[in-house]
Design goal:
Layout (H helix, E strand, L loop, with lengths): L13 H13 L2 H7 L3 H6 L1 H20 L12 H8 L3 H17 L11 H7 L6 H15 L4 H14 L12
Helix pairs in contact: 1-4, 2-7, 2-9, 4-5, 4-8, 5-6, 8-9
């Protein structure tokens, strides 16, 4: 029955699965909220895509330092995502290929207008969960001595957009 709407699987790696999902959401939701763009549009923009990769890689490193065994993140091996964020050229090319393929392969016309829940909250004037997502990653990193500056920056930007101090626009991440 679940196959019609989503997927489910049993796991003995609950915390690794949860942190991996946080990595994925942390590199997607706030980016869309800050820019007002769909995830596919964000992936097609070189600067924004690379910022999202920074978010993903930093979240991976925090999770690894916390001792979690991370799972695949959006069809990307966690170590490759971290290496891409750290500037390893072959890893960056590999990760960008996956993200760009996803941005252009969806034949669902709704994909061109859909935004993650945080961006939808922003559009409806509701408070976002940026502090509980990217802010949490940054805080956990700070606790253990693993910097997550992209998460700090995104949390600040989304908070300003949320308060009406900035409009949601791509230039917020340039």
């Amino acid at each position: 029955m679940f196959k019609l709407i989503d997927s489910a699987k049993a796991t003995s790696n609950l915390w690794g699965e949860r942190w991996s999902k946080l990595c994925q959401n942390g590199m997607r939701n706030g980016v869309s909220a800050a820019t007002g763009m769909t995830t596919s549009d964000c992936d097609r923009d070189d600067k924004i895509r690379r910022f999202a990769i920074q978010l993903g890689g930093q979240a991976v490193r925090v999770g690894q330092a916390l001792g979690y065994k991370l799972e695949s993140i959006n069809k990307i091996a966690p170590e490759r995502l971290a290496e891409a964020a750290e500037g390893k050229a072959d890893a960056l090319a590999e990760v960008e290929k996956v993200l760009l393929a996803g941005a252009g392969s969806n034949s669902n016309p709704r994909a061109n207008i859909q935004r993650p829940s945080m961006a939808q909250d922003m559009m409806k004037g509701r408070r976002t969960e940026i502090g509980l997502m990217n802010g949490y990653i940054a805080a956990k990193g700070a606790e253990i001595g693993v910097a997550a500056p992209a998460h700090v920056r995104l949390t600040d930007i989304v908070t300003k957009v949320e308060r009406g101090e900035l409009p949601a626009r791509p230039q917020n991440l340039y």
